[in-house]
Model the fold of this input.
Amino acid sequence: MDVIEGRGPSPTLVLAYVQRLPDTSLTVALASGGRDRFGWGQDRYLLADLFDAITTNTRATGNWQKGKAPKFDAYPRPRSKSQAGPKKPASVADIYKRLQRR
Done:
């Protein structure tokens, strides 16, 4: 509130501080998709990809009994908005209905 009311640090300084937050911070997580991304920095995504690559390689090159490889699950990642499900394109009538409700 102090920044908005003009009593605190300059808005430019506050913006510079926010932009310099680490990619694992809650502020960055909320800005990029939700609370489930909290703690997921670039290093964690790389480790999850490495885990998936190793398990895929193990499955592809293993000598399995009875010719059946065990099932490996992918490393759990936070869901993005695009993974939430396929979106149906909205028609003009649907958009009009939504705007009329407000």
